[in-house]
Amino acid sequence: MYAKIYTLEDSYKYKGQRKRLVESLQSKGITDERVIQAMLSVPRHFFFPEAFWSKAYDDAAFPIEGGQTISQPFTVAFQTQLLALKPGARVLEIGTGSGYQAAVLSAMGAEVYSIERVEELFRSAAEKLKECGYPVNVFLGDGTVGLPSKGPFDGIIVTAAAPDLAEHLKVQLKTGGRLVLPVGDQSFQKMVLIERLVDNKYRRTEHGDFKFVPLIGKYGWTN
Ligand code: SAH
């Protein structure tokens, strides 16, 4: 029995496709230079099943194991831009999925904690992040309760559709911290930003419509 060996091939072809993808994200309103640099550097194809690497630089969501999806690049860029992270920020991601969003946060110099509830995704994302050299702390479990033992966080990003979890997660933010989560029913959601201004003062704003797979757990959906 041989261990599975990935050949991390980041060719000029993929670099060129990535550059075109990032230019299209800029034309759709992504302006944060640190987000742009991170998305230029992370090999998104590596977080795809190998048979579909040719699809990795389309601006589209894509199915991964366990009936889940790797988020659309525009959505990754948009949520990351809303987080407005400073270098060295401590960030919690809820819904590791493929690991791609976590890699982008790590490439920006954040200290990343990420939780996934599906074991096969947790294993594969942890392996790929390690292989690519992104030091992300990946956990298996129900992220709807947050990760109080590793908080408080400068940023929290939820990458699955939540019934309103904000009340529950916002207390795990530092003062000045930002929580970005899609809130709605299972067919579409509003992107919500909660900023912790001072100790018990928060500001809530909405940033357009999105569609995510459901967040399932104690404070999420039941299925
Ligand atoms: N950020 C991911 C997107 C994955 S889709 C990426 O870049 O690929 C959303 C993920 O949230 C799925 O993998 C799903 O299994 C996971 N998820 C759903 N409910 C969850 C919960 N309660 N805790 C942790 N992960 C959850």
Could you explain how this protein is built, in words?
This protein is of the alpha/beta class. It has a single domain, classed as 3-Layer(aba) Sandwich (Rossmann fold), CATH 3.40.50.150. Helix content is 28%, strand content 26%. It contains six helices and nine strands. It has helices at 12-27, 33-41, 73-83, 100-107, 119-132, 166-169; strands at 62-63, 69-70, 90-94, 111-116, 137-140, 153-158, 173-184, 189-198, 201-210. The strands form two sheets. A seven-stranded mixed sheet has the order 5-4-3-6-7-8-9. It has a two-stranded antiparallel sheet with strand order 1-2. Strand 4 (111-116), helix 5 and strand 5 form a beta-alpha-beta unit. Helix 1 packs antiparallel against helix 2. The longest helix has 16 residues, at 12-27. The chain is globular. The structure holds S-adenosyl-L-homocysteine.
How many structurally independent domains?
1
For the record, the CATH architecture stands as 3-Layer(aba) Sandwich
What is the CATH topology assignment? Answer: Rossmann fold
Backbone structural class: alpha/beta
What would you give as the CATH superfamily?
A: Vaccinia Virus protein VP39
List keywords for this structure.
223 residues, alpha/beta, Rossmann fold, 7-stranded mixed sheet, two-stranded antiparallel sheet, 6 helices, 28% helix, globular, binds S-adenosyl-L-homocysteine
Can you summarize this structure?
This protein is an alpha/beta fold. Helices cover 28% and strands 26% of the residues. The protein contains six helices and nine strands; from the N terminus they run ααββαβαβαββαβββ.
